[in-house]
């Protein structure tokens, strides 16, 4: 007797479709990208995303209902943070697929990817072992606001646009590992190029702060 095809589980696919539908809006992906850097108030998220407060709030509610973000109230402000689960990995997979399908649409991204391929990256696992032996300097090249919300333990913050004039703040003989918002953030790539051009030893973290945090690793914040 020929085995029959196992029955499908339509409800599971309905749930997947709902998540895909929720993520199927550019504004929501932009909001998630900002939230991945750290907990923020809805007013600040609207400002960073270039949206009206009402529009940002509407998209955030969709994300909250899907469990992609969580909220808490702090006085008069509603603060948003990433939801539970491998959301950072989900977003990274979306970026991978978009690159595969539409790399030619974003020439500057493609160019940056080629540059990253020429620059040796450091995995999270390797970085952890290097941190234990104090043999590396961590350089966070994100904006100061994002650094304050959360960063790798012991990292130095020099925003990318300030790097050239603040090179003197970095130890000349240490190996520097630069990181930013994630594997597709070009800030760390440009930082490593600038550091090497000035005679410093530098590599980039293959992942970024959201992936570090998603691994459940320790982060530090800057007191306000």
From TrEMBL:
UniProt cross-references to InterPro entries, sorted A to Z = ArsR-like_HTH, GlpE_sulfurtransferase, HTH_ArsR_DNA-bd_dom, Rhodanese-like_dom, Rhodanese-like_dom_sf, Thiosulphate_STrfase_CS, WH-like_DNA-bd_sf, WH_DNA-bd_sf
UniProt-listed PROSITE patterns: HTH_ARSR_2, RHODANESE_1, RHODANESE_3
Give the signal peptide, or none.
Answer: none
Which SMART domains does this entry report, sorted A to Z? HTH_ARSR (SM00418), RHOD (SM00450)
What Pfam families does the entry give? HTH_20, Rhodanese
Q: Where is the Rhodanese domain?
A: 132-221
The HTH arsR-type domain extends over: 8-102
- What is the official name of this protein in its record? Metalloregulator ArsR/SmtB family transcription factor
């Amino acid at each position: 007797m020929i085995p029959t095809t196992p029955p499908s589980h339509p409800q599971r696919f309905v749930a997947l479709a709902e998540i895909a539908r929720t993520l199927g809006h550019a504004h929501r992906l932009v909001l998630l990208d900002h939230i991945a850097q750290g907990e923020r108030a809805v007013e600040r998220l609207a400002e960073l995303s270039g949206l009206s407060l009402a529009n940002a709030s509407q998209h955030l509610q969709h994300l909250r209902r899907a469990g992609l973000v969580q909220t808490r109230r702090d006085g008069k402000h509603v603060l948003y943070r990433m939801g539970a689960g491998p959301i950072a990995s989900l977003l990274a997979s979306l970026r991978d697929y978009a690159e595969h399908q539409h790399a030619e649409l974003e020439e500057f991204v493609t160019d940056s990817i080629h540059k990253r391929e020429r620059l040796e990256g450091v995995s999270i696992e390797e970085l952890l072992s290097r941190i234990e032996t104090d043999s590396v300097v961590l350089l966070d090249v994100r904006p100061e606001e994002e650094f304050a919300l959360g960063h790798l333990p012991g990292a130095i913050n020099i925003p990318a646009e300030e790097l050239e004039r603040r090179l003197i703040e970095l130890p000349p003989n240490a190996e520097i590992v630069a990181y930013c918002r994630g594997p597709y953030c070009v800030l760390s790539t440009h930082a490593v190029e600038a550091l090497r051009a000035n005679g410093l030893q530098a590599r980039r973290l293959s992942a970024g702060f959201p992936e570090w945090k998603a691994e459940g690793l320790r982060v530090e914040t800057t007191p306000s």
